[in-house]
Amino acid sequence: MRQTGGSHGGGTAVYAAMGANLGIAVTKFGAALFTGSSSMLAEGIHSMVDTANQGFLLLGIHRAKRAPTAEHPFGYGVEIYFWSFVVAILIFALGAGFSIYEGVEHLMSQEEGEITSPLIGLGVLGVSFLLEGYSWSVAFREFQSTRAGKSLWQDFRDMKDPSVFVVLFEDTAACLGILIAAAGLGLAWFTGNVQLDAAASIVIGLLLAVTAVFLAIETKGLLIGEAASPEMVEAIRSRVAARPEILGVNEIRTMHRGPADVLLTMSVDFADGVLSQDIERAVSEIEARVKERFPIVKRLYIEVQSREGHRRFADREAAETAAEASA
Length: 327
What we know:
With 327 residues, the protein is mainly α. The chain is built from 10 helices and 3 strands. It has helices at residues 12-35, 38-64, 79-108, 118-145, 152-157, 162-191, 195-224, 230-241, 276-293, 307-326; strands at residues 246-258, 261-270, 297-305. The chain has a 3-stranded mixed beta sheet with strand order 1-2-3. Helix 9 links the parallel strand 2 (261-270) and strand 3 (297-305). Helix 2 runs antiparallel to helix 6 (162-191), helix 4 (118-145) packs antiparallel against helix 6 and helix 6 (162-191) runs antiparallel to helix 7. The longest helix is centred in the N-terminal third of the chain and has 30 residues, at 79-108. The chain is elongated. The two termini are 34 Å apart.
């Protein structure tokens, strides 16, 4: 999935989104008090949840930078993925849950309601859309800088940095939510049917639920451990296999421990008769050149095998697989 490049270093998109959402939330709550709009209140809650989410992303970015310890020898880079998963849960539980609840409650209410000062609400939504649009543009620029030249959707799914793709998806959902709230508020004002505004709140909740599920699926894959891009793996394989003292590269396995932290292991066949000191020198050169070409490879482990040793290993693995299949 997500591409191999990128870093969560500055978190520019996160800071921009956090500032925008905090200001938007305050204005939306104020407008909800003036208008009595359910969709406006839902949007206010949405913006508050988004503000908290950016706080969790910043916490993840900060904690991911901690140095390795004896208990966590590979570092804490994966924490950014954990806090991104928390963000997805909050969007679903708080953002989507409250919006749907608010809309259903107003639809089932027997009390007559009305939309007051609708122009204030629509004005606030217009300003909110501009601020969300600015936040979205910052996240999109960071996304563009990491693209691998594939389709827009594939490059988005290939990202390894949640500080960009979470904010980008959140802001997209926020802009759509504002348009839905504006439509609900405007129709309720024009027709005098406040249930249309309540229905808009439910639609916003469903939009947030879909957003949360998608982000949960994406971050779950990162938490479990995703491989680096096939392009990077094949480039390393071809470079290593081209060395004269190496007969072949048996396998390369990679795993992202963070947006810019890859753990790489490989099994290499050396030609018979290569001296041990030459093998040591070759291994050191391979490690240095791989890390120079791909700086995100923070740890590299090379297993040295002979062709005969690899054949025995492959035969043993095949026999074990056959035994498990027949059991």
